[in-house]
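User: Here's a structure from my thesis project, written as structure tokens. My advisor, Dr. K., wants to see whether a designed sequence matches the one we expressed. Can you design one independently, without my sequence as a hint?
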């Protein structure tokens, strides 16, 4: 659908607000440098107040950066108002026109551009087919489910064929099951349309399911830009490791390249450029270890619960409680609370920070 695939570049972008309580200035976004490839789906991810929505609003033109320049394609756009930018926003609240039917909601932006009626009809019909609402043109928006309203909002943004599509937590008003199906639909539609998409969410699983890349933010800073897999397996720091999925942190000491001592035992662990003797936090994902009767790191089972697909354990290693999920436990020994057991690690699952 897109006229042209356009990338987005943020060059040393900062946004400064005044704290209403203290009267002091603070950085909502600090020195952000981002390069978003044309046609890609990128998610701004982080906890509440991290700066992700402010970043999106600066790209859209609803906020102005205090420092730096934003580029859409090769065009600097800081000075352009939202309606002059080649972007469209899908809002959390949908922002549909309640007295208009589906067709007129979707056609609204085209009518403002004074397009020919026949052109408008074809464009709206095509886009409603893409989002799965064909044949519903005359339905009023107050007769629609939340998922259908979200599709109308998406169609209205897509029909003007923007270079970049922006999403501000578009699924947060939907129930959990519908969120999962709609995020799959949004990804399908984005790929079919071939459009660049920037998506804001605080939901890690949502971001991992739909993104080519995730931009993880914390307190106004960009902590990591990578594929979801890289963020999960090779986090830049403890914040990223803890925010993306679930993580255990074991105290360790680098012994040699890719060898770390944990609780008196030497284990294989990716150490990157860390030097021997360095203290470190070792990231262990719950699915990256299992329990057995033999091994080098001994622990005590504090919690054991059958969850169907996996056995959920909490194991005390020294003074650290480690969460472990052993998948497909049917043919494995099940350890009970109070049992002693040893941790066994899958290859390439430990990562030192």
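Assistant: Designed independently from the structure alone:
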């Amino acid at each position: 659908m897109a006229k042209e695939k356009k990338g987005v570049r943020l060059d040393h972008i900062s946004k400064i607000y005044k704290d209403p309580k203290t009267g002091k200035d603070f950085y909502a976004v600090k020195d952000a440098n981002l390069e978003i490839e044309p046609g890609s789906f990128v998610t701004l991810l982080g906890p509440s107040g991290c700066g992700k929505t402010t970043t999106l609003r600066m790209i859209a033109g609803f906020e102005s950066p205090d420092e730096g320049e934003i580029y859409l394609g090769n065009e600097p756009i800081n000075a352009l108002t939202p309606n002059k930018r080649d972007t469209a926003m899908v809002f959390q609240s949908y922002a549909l026109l309640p007295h208009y039917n589906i067709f007129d909601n979707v056609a609204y932006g085209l009518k403002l551009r004074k397009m020919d009626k026949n052109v408008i009809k074809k464009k709206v019909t095509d886009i409603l087919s893409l989002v799965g609402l064909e044949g519903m043109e005359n339905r009023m928006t107050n007769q629609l489910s939340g998922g259908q309203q979200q599709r109308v909002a998406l169609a209205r943004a897509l029909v003007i064929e923007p270079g970049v599509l922006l999403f501000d937590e578009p699924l947060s008003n939907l129930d959990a099951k519908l969120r999962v199906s709609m995020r799959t639909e949004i990804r399908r539609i984005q790929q079919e349309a071939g459009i660049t998409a920037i998506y804001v969410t605080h939901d890690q699983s949502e971001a991992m399911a739909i993104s080519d890349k995730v931009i993880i933010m914390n307190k106004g800073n960009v902590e990591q830009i990578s594929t979801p897999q890289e963020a999960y397996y090779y986090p830049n720091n403890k914040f990223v490791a803890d925010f993306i999925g679930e993580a255990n942190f074991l105290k360790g000491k680098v012994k040699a390249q890719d060898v770390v001592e944990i609780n008196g035992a030497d284990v294989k662990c990716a150490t990157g450029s860390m030097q021997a003797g360095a203290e470190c936090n070792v990231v262990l994902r719950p699915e990256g270890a299992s329990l057995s009767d033999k091994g080098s790191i001994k622990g005590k089972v504090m919690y054991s619960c059958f969850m169907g697909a996996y056995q959920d354990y909490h194991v005390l290693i020294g003074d650290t409680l480690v969460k472990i999920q052993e998948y497909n436990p049917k043919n494995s020994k099940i350890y009970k609370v109070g049992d002693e057991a040893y941790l066994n690690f899958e290859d390439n699952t430990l990562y030192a920070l």
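When you compare it with your expressed construct, this may help: The mean pLDDT is 91.
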